[in-house]
Amino acid sequence: MFFVRTRFSILLLVLEFSSSFSYIKSYGALHRRRSHSTLFLEMSSTSAAQDLLYQDQQAAMERRALQEQKLLSTKKVKELKAPKLKIPAPKSGTGFGGGASTKKSSMSAMQRLASEQAKIVHREGVIRINQALSSDQSDKLREYILEQQSLASIETAKDLSISKAFYGVENQRKNRCDLQLSLLQGGFAADNGGDTSSTDSHVLADVLQQLLGKDGTLGSLFENLVTMEGEFYELASVITNPGSPRQIVHPDLPHKKIAPLYVIFLALQDVNEFMGPTTFLLRTHTIKENDIFNDHSQKDQQLATADSRLATLKKGDAVLFDARILHCGNANDADKGFDRALFNFSFRNPKVQGSLGYAGSIRSGYTGAMTLRDMSEVLVAYGEGDNDAFAKYGDGISR
Predict the structure, then answer these.
(1) Final residue of a domain: which of 53, 72, 91?
(2) Does 48 share its domain with 173?
(3) Final residue of a domain: which of 72, 92, 108?
(4) N or C: which end of the chain has fewer CB within 10 A?
(5) 209 with 187: CB under 8 angstroms?
(6) Binning pLDDT at 50, 70 and 90, where does residue 300 land?
(7) DSSP 77-117
(8) Looking at residues 164-179, what average pLDDT do you find?
(9) Within a domain: residue 2?
(10) H-only helix segments in the chain
């Protein structure tokens, strides 16, 4: 839950202008006679009032975030470490009709490891996976994403109204953006059928192959958590720059009994304590912890006693988390920090129907378009030499 404190005067100002425009709508004949310049000034004033309101909300959240930082610091925050897991040996079957034992005996080593990882996610709400992506591919993806960010900046400078094609929920926050990615080779250069003849590699497809392909480091884990019918729900990069403020503690979506969404943050460079690593509050993805979090009389005590972990990561390391868990991004220090890029994607649990109360950070044209099964099939085709395997999904821009 976000704590937003607004100045009453600003709220009155917004209401005053809202009321003014309702009056114009109701008595259009009278007000159409007023000059365009007068209406423009009124609209500009309304926009200014909304900007002030937004700035006031952000300032209030920054104050609350600092207060929460002190509460979490009452206990030493430990580093989130990858668990030391041994791949369980296959269990022998029990003859004809062996049932579950026979099924387990046929599981691959990757599937057996994924089963153990999933147990940790269910229990703790988050797991760290070291070297999910190779160092070489992490470097290539970081370079590619920063190039995409530059292209997005150029296009939105021409026409701010198209910013939603490039950015998700983080677009307006200071020194922080949520860059939605294209599945096409060439990325944003391929938007609207653009010329990508000079593009000789498909960086994003290569990365997804390593993560979700046949021998991918994360594919079996997602299959365990959401099945092959899990919806590909997000595709973006969270980028913070020095000066980005700390977030307030929050879950990503309203609580549901069954885990609705599992999210990946993958570091494209080392992430140290000055670069705004994410803090996770272990085992806070339950209904009990959610109820406490929403009770203002208990919330501060919950934070002060939380078993929290700091996700300082090495390049290529990933954290996979249940979107219900309480967490927050820390400040990217203005002096000691560095540009931090995380590759971000998620899969939705098909067991949870209806709205999640959270719009995924993904280009609107990709919403509901792919499942984990679809992704796996496309990556098989890509691995067999079809460089245009993702082309059928287009650039993701709704028209």
Answers:
(1) 72
(2) no
(3) 72
(4) C
(5) no
(6) very high
(7) PEEP-----PPPPPPP--STT-THHHHHHT--HHHHHHHHH
(8) 81
(9) no
(10) 8-26, 28-31, 36-72, 100-105, 109-124, 135-158, 203-212, 219-226, 287-293, 296-304, 372-383
Model confidence over 375-399: pLDDT tens digits? 999 999 999 999 999 999 999 998 7
Residue 132: strand, helix, or coil: coil
CB count within 10 Å of CB 211 equals 23
Beta bridge partners of 266: 318, 343
Inter-axis angle of helices 36-72 and 8-26, to 10 degrees? 150
- Does 84 reside within a domain? yes
Based on the fold, state whether residues 60 and 204 are members of the same structural domain.
no
Q: What's the domain range around 356?
A: 79-393
Q: Which of 129, 90, 84 is nearest to 109 (CA)?
A: 90
52 or 304, greater pLDDT: 304
Residue 5 phi, psi (nearest 5) = -110, 125
At residue 347, the 3 state secondary structure works out as: strand
Domain CATH code at residue 289: 2.60.120.620
Q: Of the candidates 331, 336, 323, which has an alpha carbon nearest to the alpha carbon of residue 278?
A: 331
